[in-house]
Amino acid sequence: MANSISATSGIKARDKIGYAMGDVASCLVFGLTQSVLNKYYTDVLEISVLSVMIMTIIARIWDAINDPIWGRLIDGAKPRSDGRYRRWIKIFAVPVALATILMFADVRGFSAGGKLAFIYVTYILFGMLYTCINIPYGSLAQVITSDDKERSSLSVFRSIGSTFGAMPAMVLASICYVKLADGTSQMDYKKVFLGVVVISVLSVLAYLLCYAWSKERVESRPDPREKGQTMKVIKTLLKSRPFMAVSVASMLFLAAQMFGQGYNAYLFDHYFHKTGLTMLPTVFQYLPVAVIMFFASRLGNKFGRREVCSYGILLAAVFYIALFVLALFGVTNVWLYLAACLASGVGTAFIFLLIWVMAGDAIDYNRVTFGLNDEATSYAFYSFMRKLGQTVATILINVPLLRIGYEGSKLKTEGLTDAALQRMYNSSVMIPAVLFLLVFLILRFAYPLNKKAVEELQVKKAANQ
User: What is the pLDDT of residues 3-50, one digit of tens each?
Assistant: First the structure.
C-alpha cells in the first residue's frame, strides 16, 4: 500500500497553494452571483423577483444537459503535455471573466422585455463557461495525489482559497451604495460595474497561478466514448449512497451559504438599516475557519470526517434557532445577529473545510465498488448538484421577498411595513436553521463513510492501483 500511494503523492506547499488559487479564482466570480447579482437585478435593473427565480430554474434545466456532456468530453479527452485537467483552466480563464463582466453590462435603458432577455442569456452563458472550468478544476485533486491525508489537506486549502475568493464580492456588496437625500441607500451602478471588472481581472490571474503551480501526478487514462456511457455513469452515481448523500448535503450547505450572502443584502438594507455592515455576517462565519483550518484535517482523520462535520453543522443550526426564539420575545439587534453568525461559523467550519475530501472519498468508493473511473463525469454531476443549491438559494431568497411584496421600483416611493420587516428577519434565521438540520440528518444517517469505512476504502484503493 505504501509503495503504490507514495509513487503518486508527495505534494509540496506550491501544489497546495496552486490548487487553492483555483478556488480563489472561481469564488471571485461566483461570489458576485452570491452577494451582488440578485439585488442588482431587483434594485438596479428592476427585474421582478419572480422573473429571477424562473431564470435560475431554466438555467439549471440547461445545466442538467450541459454538465454531464462536458464531463464526458473531458473523461474521453487524451492527456496532453500540460495535463488532462489543468489545460482547461488556462483555456477558459479569460472567457469566464468576460462572461462575468457581461452579466453586469449597463442595460438600464432597455425595455422590460429586452432587460429580461439580456439577463437570461448572459446568466446562462456564464453558467456554461463556469462549468467548462469548474469541472476539470474539481477533478484535479484526484490526480494531484492519491494519498488520503494529502487530499484532505488539499480540501482544506481549497476551502481557504474559496474564503479569500469570496471576500471581494462581499466587500463590494457593502460599499456599492450611495446615500439618497431622504437618508435611504441605493445601489450605485458605477461602483458595482467597476468592482465587477476588477474582481474579474483578479480571477484570471488566480486561474493562471493555479495552472502554473499545480501538477498532475496520478496517471489518468481517457475513458472510451461508448454510446450511452453517460447515462450508464449517471445511473451508477444514482445508486451510490455515499456519492448521493454527500452531493445532496453539499447542495443544501451551499444553498444555506448563498442564501445568507444574498438575503443579507436586503436584511441589512431594510431591517437593520446598516448597508455598510452587509459583509460582516459572512465574514464572521468565515473567521473561525482561520483557526479551525490548522487542525480540521487532523480531527477529521482522528474522529472521522462524517462525525466532525455532522455535529458541527448541528451546532450551527442551534444558534440560528436561538435567534428565532429570541425574536419571539422581541429581542433582535444587529450585534446579536452577528454574534450568532460568528458562533455558527465554528460549527460550519468543519464541513466547509472537509466537504471536498468527502466528495473525493465518495468518488473513490465508486471506483472501488463499481469500477467507475469517470472522475470528470462524476464531478460534473456533483457540480450540478451544487448548482441546484444555487437555485434553491435563489428561490429561498426571493419567495420571502414575494410574500412581503418586495419590488425594487416601489421601494423608491413606498417602504415596508413593520410586519413585513419582521417576516424578513424570521426568514433570515429560520431558513439557514432548517437547511443545516437537513444537512446534519443526511450526513449522520445517510452518508455511510464513517472513519472505519474510509480506512477500509483506502486499503482497497491501494490494492487496485
Answer: 444 545 678 888 899 999 999 999 999 889 888 998 999 989 999 989
Say if residue 409's pLDDT is above 60.
no
Q: Do residues 251 and 386 touch, judged by C-beta distance below 8 A?
A: yes
What is the rounded distance in angstroms from the CA atom of residue 204 to the CA atom of residue 90? Answer: 9
Cα-based distances in Å from 164 to 25, 249, 351, 398, 433: 9, 23, 17, 27, 25
Nine-digit cell string for 334: 444587529
| Phi (first) and psi of residue 185, to 5 degrees | -115, 155
- Give the C-alpha separation, 20 to 409, whole Å: 41
β-strand partners of 187:
177
The H or E element containing residue 187 is strand 185-187
Report yes or no: 275 and 185 within 8 Å, Cβ to Cβ. yes
> To 10 degrees, what angle do helices 112-144 and 86-103 make?
160
Q: Domains in the chain and their CATH numbers?
A: 12-216+228-464 (1.20.1250.20)
pLDDT tens digits, residue range 103-156?
999 999 999 999 999 999 999 999 999 999 988 888 887 788 877 778 778 878
DSSP string, 335-363: HHHHHHHHHHHHHHHHHHHHHHHHHHHHH
Cα-based angle 404, 410, 412 (whole degrees, multiple of 5): 120
Q: Which residues pair with 185 in a beta bridge?
A: 179
CB 211 within 8 A of CB 90: yes
Helix (H, G, I), strand (E, B) or coil at 186: strand
The residues near 105 (Cβ < 8 Å, ≥ 6 apart) are 118, 122
Rounded distance between C-alpha atoms, residue 209 and residue 213, angstroms: 6
Tell me the three cell numbers of residue 442: 443526511
pLDDT in tens, 145-203: 877 778 778 878 888 888 899 889 989 988 988 887 766 778 899 999 999 999 999 99
Contact (CB, 8 A) for 44 and 189: yes
- Which of 241-255, 274-288, 372-386, 405-419 bottoms out in mean pLDDT, i.e. has the lowest? 405-419
Which residues, at least 6 apart from 207, have a Cβ–Cβ distance to it below 8 Å?
A: 21, 22, 25, 89, 90, 93, 96, 133
